[in-house]
Write a structure and sequence with these properties.
single chain, 186 residues, alpha+beta, Jelly Rolls, 23% strand, globular
Length: 186
């Protein structure tokens, strides 16, 4: 138990919580070991059971494009918290497809327990701050991919992407624009 508390002290966004709260969180964590490489989340399909905190090993995350090619591949290692934005802002659906590499060990904090932290402004602002870089990098990559695969004016692509994101989820916006299933509406 004490080792979980010490571990959480170094994991964003949990590192802003007081020690007594971390001790409670540590009791809620469920350890999961991945004995073989496997797809554990599919973008916009899999409902998150909770938030995964990588203890050891690696997650590979990416988007599939319309030709089923991996795009915007990222690798996450020990201390990374995957799923917070999906749980809080994406209707509990995984934003990306995720492969757990062989030998990966994670602690999962159940969704309802993680969602209880929504009432803590310090915690949620820390989630937004820590995820801002990842989301910005992903958004820029998705927009660049869309622009490179369309003959539309790049400004229209960016505006339509932002309009779709405002009305729905990130991946739905990507897929709708990719399929050109949107109205200009200016």
């Amino acid at each position: 138990m004490e080792s979980k508390v010490q571990f959480l002290k170094n994991v964003t966004p949990f590192n802003v919580l007081p020690e007594d709260v971390l001790a409670n969180v540590a009791t809620l964590l469920q350890e999961e070991k991945h004995s073989r490489e496997a797809v554990i989340y599919k973008q916009e399909v899999t409902t998150m059971k909770g938030v995964d905190i990588i203890v050891e090993g690696e997650y590979e995350s990416f988007f599939y494009d319309s030709a089923q090619n991996k795009r915007l591949v990222e690798h996450y290692h020990a201390g990374y918290c995957y799923g917070g934005i999906s749980v809080l802002l994406n209707r509990k659906k995984s934003l990306r497809t995720v492969i757990a590499k062989k030998g990966t060990v994670v602690y999962t904090l159940p969704r309802k327990d993680f969602s209880a932290f929504k009432r803590s402004p310090v915690f949620t602002s820390n989630i937004r701050f820590s995820s801002a870089y990842t989301l910005t990098k992903s958004t820029i990559g998705v927009i660049a991919l869309l622009i490179s695969n369309t003959s539309s004016d790049p400004r229209v692509v960016v505006l339509m992407f932002l309009k779709k994101v405002k009305g729905g989820s990130y991946c739905n916006a990507f897929l709708a624009i990719r399929k050109k299933n949107f109205s200009i509406g200016f």
